[in-house]
Amino acid sequence: MTTRRLGRRGTVAAGVLLLWGAGLGVLARRELTARGSDGARLAAVASRVSPGNAFYAVEQGGTQIGYASSTIDTTTTEIRVDDDFVADMPVGGTLHRASASSRVRLTRGFALRTFAVEIESDAGPIRVTGRTQGDSLLLVAVSTNGEPADTQRVVTNGPVLLPTLLPLAVALGERPRVGARYTLSVFDPTAMAPRPTTIAVRAESLFVVDDSAAVDRATRRWHPAHRDTVRAWRIESETADAGGSAAAGARPGFAGWVDADGRLVELAPPGGLVLRRTAYEIAFENWRVAALQRAGRTVTADEDIMESTAIAASAPLGEKEVEQLRVRLGGVDLAGYDLNGSRQVLLGNTLMVIRERPDQLRAMYTLPTDESMRATFARELESEPLLQASNPKIVELAHRLAAGARDPRVVAERINQWMYDSLAKEITFGLPNAVQVLESRKGDCNEHTQLYIALARAAGIPARPAAGLAYVRGKFYYHAWPEVFLGTWVAVDPTFGEFPADAAHLRFVNGGLDRQAELLRLIGKLKIEVLAKR
Question: Is the confidence at residue 122, as pLDDT, over 90?
């Protein structure tokens, strides 16, 4: 049994990006044009946009851990929307600073012109930029740590919005109305594709918002000096899978409270973080002082996001690798998760996981992968942003590890063992990048998964990410691992050094960050009852 040293912050990293993508920049007045509206309507919307700032305290469990802001400016030629987010995330016993910013430029007719997103974290800087060409093409470039930018051409088939502008949809030229629904085309930065997104107005309520602040000289902290009562509406978005409709197979996304001017009042995504609108001094100055006081201190278990999101097992599984596991899942709607298939069978709310047998590890093809296999598994063999399977450094290492072997199972296991032996098991906070991981030789489960998949694809083995929960010392923690195709999809785990991964891996999703973000919906709700193990 290998010692399990688990990097468990996949959902946290996804949450940071979602906070940027779903609520930091909330623009404008009353109207938004749905897809297909004409330019005159867009121009009318733009004419009502007014400059302004909004500031937010980022809280966890009632303690402020970060700061966010949104700024809208207008010139004679464009509308500018600038959003910033920074927080000290308590993960793995220490504080990890993560920041994200977006800079969006619109024409005076409210059409997207350019955008730039920057994310700074333990894993290194990531910059995503984009610019439109006409009304049907978006050029998107992703660069990391000084590496050459990876540029993609994204077909939009008409005007497309960025997620930061979603709250505009609270009203289409009219007062927000509970029960109203709108469908828009929104560019999903985690999937690098436009997605149909349905926005629903769910509820209406009143909020008391800090409008100004005064300082307490003794404590050096700011407190509210004046408060306003603000009417707000809860809006929720559902995003369809690529090629689907928002009505069929939709996934929950943004959910927050927005006022009549389209400005965010409060955002509480799953995972325990809250963005709350307040005065600038309370949002920024109080966080700045608190950050200096918190610097370098140990994070307690009740603060730690990893520990607070773990799920205690109802029965111990022991120290041996689990061959079969049967559990009952409760507390959440299981629809839309990838719980059925390959090693997993879901009947009602009972999930059976059976570890792959030796005969299931016999590949039904040989390397190098032929054209038929490449056509069938094109998506699982290609490079992606941050998963650079065609990078020369990754290709060279994949060929060196393969050492001429033609059996995909042999090569897949060699990659798994090399990664387990060669990468330091360290918790990082950010978005995993295969090339960065190869250079740094460290990371948690997300870094291990990203580099493994890049190496496997470079060797000609179809590979894809999986994410869900894994058992470690009495608890189920959120975890990520790869799957490779050897005639059937086989779960492997380079973080734990398991080939194949044991049955104490409960897969909830297959896919990258856009899919893994759905694990946020489970936090604080999912219950796991162990029924049987072997």
Answer: no
